Each structure stands twice: as structure tokens, then as C-alpha cells.
Amino acid sequence: MPYRLVKGRYRVVNYAPDGDTIRFEPDDREALGDLLGSARFNLRGHVPLRLEGIDALESHYSPPSGGGALSQPMPLARGATDFLLNFVGIHEVVWTAERRSIASATDGAKGHILTRSVDKYGRVIAFAFAGDANEEDGDDVFLDQEGLARSYNQAALAEGLVYPTFYWGLFADLRTVLADAAATARRQRKGVFAQDVTQTGVRVNSLSSITDDAVILPKLFRRLSDFLVATGSVKDFHTAMEANREPVLDLTTSNFTHFDTFIEQDGDVVRMTRLLEDIVFDPMPTRETASLGTMLEMATHESNALGKFAASDDGGPE
């Protein structure tokens, strides 16, 4: 199935882009075709892009339970953002205090995207490219390995500035190319992989353990920060992940399972047992975002209910 080519301009002033999200202004909205009705345009005619196959360190993540915006180690998070802006041709960037948004820049750099879906938040899932394209706006384009090599998505992975994070819907041949780029960056200990402890394990003594100190997969960071903000402790994090039942495909066995299958917890140490490129996540389009604190409450409730049932079964009806 081909991708839809959409030409336009990247927009950043008064926004806070990061290494995997940026705003885009299509030259012609109709080029989105059937995706137009799902895309979340603002009054300025700009739509958010969620860049396919990658996940950058968080620079302003807000857990569902509140607690304000959180970030992962900022030098690396900012490095990915700066690389994206430079890649698409946006320069002379001036941020507001604490990099909350961009105050000024050479905004409106010309570029184009390839897309075939919109996520549940109205963000266009896309491969991002700088400059013009030879094809006509709105054309169907088959993205091959040569074309993928010109994308920001692959370039960011090759530099080790983002993690590979794959969802259902990404074609297997493209996923393989992106996975190879990430594996090479890991071997060369580039970018995030020079400090990554996702597989070796992170000791979570407090929220600052993952916001200031350890570099881990952003998806794991989000799950941990959701839980820590809701409960104040990493205790029973794995129990909450089990209750969350987040669907994944294990590419090493071709089996469907859940994210918690590849997470181990030993006291306050949490680690993943699979490389990121060996897992494909479900975007769960019909599922509402929920705090893992809520999931823990659900798991505790279910456990108590099972305990009462077992007592009744052993000793007769209550």
C-alpha cells in the first residue's frame, strides 16, 4: 500500500517541537485525501506530525495524573530536537525561558511528508523530508529503502538521537531498515545509546531517577512516570503493567503478548528484556489513556476479589 505525498512547510514559532513531533502546514489540505477528516488542524492551519518509527527522549511530558511537565535528561532530548529543526531547514531558533516554546526562527521551511494514517490524537503519522519532491502533491508514492534513507526518521536513528519504536501498520521492509540503523547506532554507542540503561536496568529511587539521571526508552519512561506520579513509589509497578495489558507483537517468536512480558522488576530496579526493534506496539486507537496508578488499583481490587473467592471455595459459601 502506498503512502500519500503531502507538500507544505514546517512550522515551529509558538510551538514546542521535540525530536519526534513537529507542526506542518500543507500547501493544500486536500492532498491528505481520506486522512483529512481525522487530522487535527488548529486555527492557523497547522497539523501536528508524529514521526513514524521513532521515539525521542521526552522534553515536556505530562502524566495523566498531573504533576506538571516532566522531561528526560535534557542534553540528549534537546539534541534530538535541534537535529530535527536543522534537518528540515529551520535555523536561528530562539527559545523562550526554559525552552517552553520557540519565540522566533526562520519558520516555514519547505518540506514534504509521506503518510498513510492519523493517530487517535489527530496527529498525522509521517516520514518527514526536507525540500520539495519530484511527484505531485497528493500523489501515491511507494517508499523504498532509497527513499527512506532521505527521511529524518532514518537519519535520527542512524545518529542514535532517538529510539526505534514500531507500531502496527509500519511495513516490515521499512521496519527492518530502521531497525538496522538503530542496531548500528547502538553498537557504535552513539547518542542515547552511550548512556542507555533500558536493558541493563534503572534503579528508581524517586522520580528524579528517570527525569535527571537515567536514559531509558521513552515509552518505559512514560509508564514509570505515570506510575510514580500516581503512587509515589515504584513498588508494584510490574503489577500495574500486568493489569494494563498493553498489546505487543514479539518479532523474535512471532507471538502476540503484552508489554509487561518484557519488563522485569527486582525491588526498585526495572529493566526491559527485549531490544526495542524486536517489539511492535499496538496504537490502541479505541483505548483511553489511563494512569498506571489506576491500573494498580484495578489489579489490587481483582486480587482481593480472587482471594475472597478462593476462601469461599475452600470453606464453603460466605
Automatic annotation (TrEMBL):
Highest taxon above the source species: Bacteria
Q: Where is the TNase-like domain?
A: 7-195
Q: Which PROSITE patterns match?
A: TNASE_3 (PS50830)
User: Protein name, please?
Assistant: TNase-like domain-containing protein
